Each structure stands twice: as structure tokens, then as C-alpha cells.
Amino acid sequence: MPFESIIGHERQISLLRKMLRSGIIPHAFIFYGVPGIGKYTTARAFAKALHCTLQKDDFCEVCTSCQKIERKTHPDVLFLEPLEDKKTITIAQLRDMQEQIAYRPFEGRWKIVIIDDADRLQPESANCLLKTLEEPPDHTVLILIATSTTALLPTVLSRCQHVRFSPLAQAEMVMYLCKNRGITQQDAACVASYAQGSIGRALLLLDEDFLKQRTQLIPLLISGTAQQATESLSFAKKHANENPLDSYAFEFLRCWYRDILLLKSGITDTELLYNRDIVASLQKAAVHETYTGLIKKIARIHQVQQGAALNFNVQLALESILLAP
């Protein structure tokens, strides 16, 4: 899997390859951007390229170093991420990392540390990391991965080379999904629209049968009949039993009502719609919706999504949205 196999991010990869050719590698990076767009994948690829024995500005995936990094068994590459029972990387993990990078590399040319969710570090942990950034051991490269830079200490940011990752283009995502998931171009375009530039999110949507849920919901949303109430209650109950922790039905509803609100506001550019492939269904549903009702439903969905980490009742939440006037 050489650099060219990574989806998008040509500018960022070009910068990294230029550094590899020159041999001038900053001691610390921060890769930041929305979740699921390839920051972690690129960081791991860069680590492979730094250790690859067969390539100068790329990686081969066949040499021992590349294979060990892929399996996370290379003694000179550390992967720091929150433990299963923790929400963020602990100070104990950082201190253990500091001890390990104090030694020279065992097999390769560099000691590399990839720190995931760096923007979620607690102040004490961030200050611990700062000590390493201020006086990094020789032959050490740290790669911090974050959603944004706003939560990181300015003193941490000032010591890192910033590499910003942008959301992927829809065309790139559609091509990838068709090739690697074997779905139709229409389905791939639908999923890519909802994923908003995040290939990780697109894959999660497919894994959670998002397209199937969407197909089940659309008839309920366009009927506007008394039968719709009974069917909505049935769907809410069935969905809660089968997918008690799934929030993608709510995400679809949020985008559905948002699209209808745009249509009722006179928007004619379908490229602005998430559900651009089913505009006729949106128009049918719009007949039964009001501005006030749509805004209330969107607000209710937002409230549910904000509390998704809490123990909320999926069935009641769906019923309150689907049955709202």
C-alpha cells in the first residue's frame, strides 16, 4: 500500500515525500482534520516510509519493517491511543513512552510515536507531553493526531509541524466505495453525501446497514396518512430492539427534514441536498410539513444526538420525531 493508494491528500503526501527525499524530518507533527479522513492512515504510512528498507520516499509493504509496523510490532514505532476503559491517553502511558524513546532505535533509523486523539489529552498529560516536545531525544519523530488544534496547548502547537487534512472529495469517495465495497455508483454517492468527506464515516454507514434503514423510513415519511402513525410506531419499536445504540436513523432524519426545509424555502439546486437522488420523495413529504414543525423536529433530533452518549430511550426518541406534527 504505497502512498499513491491513500485516498486524496495529494498536497499533504507530497510534503511528506519531499521531507523523506531531503532527509530533513521535523521532530514533531500534528495531523489535524475531521474524523475518518485518513490522518491515522497517513501517519502510519509515513512511519513505514521512514523505516522502509526498499524505498527512499515511499514504502513497500513487503520489507520486514513495513510488515512489523502494519502489525504494530515494530520496536521503534509506538502507537498511543486511549485504553479500552479510558476516554483519553493517560499520563502513565506518556511517561512509559518517554522512557522508551530515551533509548536509540533498535532496528531502524527513527523512534516514531503516533499519538491518537491528542486533542483530548487532559492538562496534566498535555504538560507531560510538552516536556518531550521541548527536549526531544535524537532520532525521534512524534505525530499527534487531532480533530482540531483548538483544544491543544499553544506551547504544544508551537513545537509541531502542522499538516491540515481536508474532507475528501465526493468523487474520490464514490470511486473508492464502488471499487472496495462492490456497491452501485448511486448507493456510493448516497453514502458519500451523508459521510461529508469522511471515508471512515462512510464505511461505518455501510456496516450499519444505513441504506436499508433509509429505504425503510422513506415510505413512512412521505405517506401523511393515519396508517403512517401505526407504521412509525412499529418501526420505532423494531429499530430500538435491533439497533439500540445506533444513531444513523437519527442522522438520516435530520438530513431528511433539513432537505425538505431547503425545498420549502425555494432552493432549486439539488446539489445542496443530502438526498439529491430522491428529490421527488422529498417533494411529496414536503406537502405534509410546516416550517415550524420542521424546525422543531430538527431541534429534537439535535437534542437526541447530543445525548447519544447517555442512556436514552431510542424507541421513545424515534416516536417523538416520527409522530410530531
Q: What does this protein look like?
A:
It is built from 15 helices and five strands. It has 325 residues and is an alpha/beta fold. Strand 2, helix 4 and strand 3 form a beta-alpha-beta unit. Helix 2 (39-51) packs antiparallel against helix 3 (64-71), helix 4 (91-101) packs parallel to helix 5 and helix 12 (248-264) packs across helix 13. The longest helix has 17 residues, at 226-242.
Question: How would you summarize what this structure contains?
Answer:
The protein has 325 residues and is an alpha/beta fold. Helices cover 54% and strands 8% of the residues.
Quickly list its features.
3 domains, single chain, Rossmann fold, 15 helices, 325 residues, 8% strand
| CATH level-3 fold name of the largest domain | Rossmann fold
Strand order of the largest sheet: 2-3-4-1-5
Unreliable stretches (pLDDT < 50, length at least 5) are none
Overall CATH class of the largest domain: Alpha Beta
Radius of gyration from the alpha-carbon trace, in angstroms: 24 Å
What fraction of the residues are assigned to beta strands by DSSP? 5-15%
The biggest sheet amounts to: 5 strands, parallel
Oligomer: single chain
Tell me the total number of β-strands. 5
The SSE order reads: HEHHEHEHEHEHHHHHHHHH
Termini separation? 52 Å
Return the average pLDDT rounded to an integer.
Answer: 87
Q: What overall form do the CA principal axes indicate?
A: elongated
Name the CATH architecture of the largest domain.
Answer: 3-Layer(aba) Sandwich
Give the % helix. Answer: 40-55%
Count of DSSP H/I helices = 15
Total individual domains: 3
- Determine the CATH superfamily of the largest domain: P-loop containing nucleotide triphosphate hydrolases
| Class of secondary structure makeup | alpha/beta
